[in-house]
Each structure stands twice: as structure tokens, then as C-alpha cells.
């Protein structure tokens, strides 16, 4: 029979890393520990539990139902431990605690200028770990407890993910103000078939949304250029070489200065996309993190109503 005293933090970290990496070898490489040691400890714990925790497959492992429950327990225990350590640091006046944030590239400037700068003025001892990632990478990182907060564009609904705030941020065609379509009230995908296009890679939520819009309208977009960063898309639109597709908050400064124009897409799916501020469901928050979530919700442009 297993008691809570049998479940030490080291075992929980080992097991959670195995689940996250999808293999014992991958976890061993990440933790710099012999794979045999991790395998032995998990195997011994499975014997004490009386049930398998991992399903061994040819190319790795996946958690069983009991293993998934243990992984959830591990995340909560590790988060509680970090929360307690952050409390001790604040008590000793060392720092307010470390906050881990994953966000899509389009949120970077908005997050830093409108949330992190004002937050750090009143929480001078807080520290941050900032990660830039694609939509699904952000969702996975939040779900697996690798980050505390995620800012994602049009993420899928998933069990275990809580949306703190969301705002409709429709997809627009982004182009030079001198482009023939720049003054239109809206534009259809079919109007852009013969126009040079710059599109993001599949890791971006924008690309997944565009595929749904294409499927609903029966139009296939063939990009002249595919880009791995939104900054490249922005620069290509500024140069006039190509038209791209972005929510307006990602090019706010260029729209404000008149360097770019944003024309709403007429297709319904394009108008249904939203920006989401997400955390893991039942995530226990320490006070500075709660304050930061409030600032992000109220000040970051991506989470304000879409003017279009």
C-alpha cells in the first residue's frame, strides 16, 4: 500500500519529466540522470501502487489512467512547492517570486510595454522567464506546468486549460496603404488569389485559422513566401513585396503611424478568432501572479475589444 509519505518530490519530478518527454531516455537526458535509475524508481513505485503507471511502446511511453492522475498530482505538488518557496523569498525580502510566461510572437511588444513595464515598477523583486512559442506549444507548456501563464492566438479548447480573459481579434489582410485593396471595407480570399502573399508556418495559430477560412470559402492560398517569424511577415508587408494576414494588435504601431493598412477578411471564420490569456485549471496562484494577470487583462491591447 502506498501512502503520501512514499511519494517524494524527486520521484514526482522524474515521473513528470518522463511523461513530458514521452520517453525514459528523453527524461534521463534532460535530467542528466541514468535512464536505468529512473526506470528502476518508477518500476518500484508501480509495484507498490499495484498498477502500471506507464504504457511502454516501441517509440516511448504514455501514461496510463493512473499515470495521468499521478502526473496531475505531480504538477500540483511541484507548483505548491514553488509557491511556498516564493512565499519564503517574499518573507525574507529577497524577491516576489519567478513567473514563467509563454507567448506568441505577436504579443511580445504588447506584453512588455503594457504589462511587464508597469508591473515591474511596483514589483521590483519579481523575476521572469519569458518563452516565445507557437500556439500549440504554449497550450502544452501551460497544461504540463512548464509555464504559469500563456498568451495565445486562437488556441483550441482543451480540458485542463482555463481562459482568464479573451477578446475577439479578427484576422485582417495587412498591406501597404498604397495597395489597391487598402481602402476596401473588407476583402474576400478570392480577391487575393493572384496577389503575392506571405504566410506564417504551421506552428502559428494564424496559419491554422487561415486553413479553416480557406476550407470554408473553397479558396486555396498559395504563398509566394513562407516565414518562420511574424516580424518577417511585417517587414514584407511594409516593403510592399507581399500581403500578409495578421490580427491588427500585432502591427499596432505601424497602423498608428500609417505605415500599414489592415482590411478585415469577409469570411466568417476570420472574424471569430480570439486572443486568450490562459492558465492551467485549478492552478494555485501567488499574489504577484494574480496582480500580473489583472494588469495583462486590463492593459494589454490584445485583450481589449476588437475595434473592427
From TrEMBL:
PANTHER family: HTH-TYPE TRANSCRIPTIONAL REGULATOR YBHD, NITROGEN ASSIMILATION TRANSCRIPTIONAL ACTIVATOR-RELATED. Residues 7-64 form the HTH lysR-type domain. The gene is gltC5. It comes from the Bacteria. This is HTH-type transcriptional regulator GltC. InterPro entries: HTH-type_LysR_regulators, LysR_HTH_N, LysR_subst-bd, WH-like_DNA-bd_sf, WH_DNA-bd_sf. Belongs to the LysR transcriptional regulatory family. GO terms for molecular function: DNA binding; DNA-binding transcription factor activity. The keyword Transcription applies. Keywords: DNA-binding, Transcription, Transcription regulation. GO terms for cellular component: cytosol.
Amino acid at each position: 500500500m502506498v501512502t503520501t509519505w512514499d511519494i517524494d518530490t524527486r520521484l514526482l519530478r522524474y515521473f513528470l519529466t518522463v511523461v513530458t518527454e514521452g520517453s525514459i531516455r528523453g527524461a534521463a537526458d534532460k535530467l542528466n540522470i541514468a535512464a536505468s535509475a529512473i526506470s528502476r524508481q518508477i518500476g518500484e513505485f508501480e509495484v507498490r501502487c499495484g498498477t502500471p503507471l506507464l504504457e511502454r511502446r516501441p517509440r516511448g511511453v504514455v501514461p496510463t489512467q493512473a499515470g495521468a492522475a499521478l502526473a496531475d498530482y505531480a504538477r500540483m505538488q511541484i507548483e505548491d512547492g514553488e509557491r511556498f518557496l516564493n512565499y519564503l523569498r517574499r518573507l525574507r525580502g529577497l524577491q516576489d517570486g519567478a513567473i514563467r510566461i509563454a507567448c506568441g510572437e505577436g504579443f511580445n511588444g504588447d506584453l512588455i510595454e503594457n504589462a511587464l513595464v508597469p508591473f515591474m515598477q511596483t514589483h521590483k523583486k519579481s523575476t521572469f522567464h519569458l518563452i516565445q512559442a507557437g500556439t500549440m506549444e504554449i497550450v502544452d507548456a501551460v497544461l504540463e506546468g512548464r509555464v504559469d501563464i500563456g498568451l495565445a492566438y486562437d488556441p483550441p479548447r482543451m480540458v485542463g486549460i482555463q481562459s482568464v480573459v479573451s477578446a475577439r481579434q479578427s484576422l485582417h489582410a495587412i498591406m501597404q496603404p498604397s495597395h489597391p485593396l487598402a481602402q476596401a471595407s473588407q476583402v474576400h480570399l478570392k480577391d487575393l488569389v493572384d496577389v503575392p502573399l506571405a504566410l506564417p508556418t504551421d506552428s502559428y495559430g494564424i496559419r491554422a485559422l487561415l486553413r479553416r477560412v480557406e476550407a470554408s470559402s473553397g479558396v486555396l492560398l498559395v504563398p509566394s513566401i513562407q516565414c518562420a517569424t511574424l516580424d518577417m511577415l511585417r517587414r514584407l508587408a511594409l516593403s510592399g513585396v507581399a500581403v500578409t494576414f495578421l490580427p491588427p494588435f500585432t502591427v499596432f504601431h505601424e497602423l498608428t503611424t500609417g505605415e500599414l493598412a489592415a482590411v478585415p477578411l469577409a469570411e466568417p471564420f476570420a472574424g471569430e478568432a480570439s486572443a486568450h490569456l490562459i492558465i492551467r485549471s485549478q492552478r494555485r496562484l501567488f499574489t504577484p501572479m494574480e496582480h500580473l494577470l489583472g494588469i495583462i487583462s486590463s492593459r494589454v491591447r490584445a485583450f481589449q475589444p476588437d475595434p473592427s
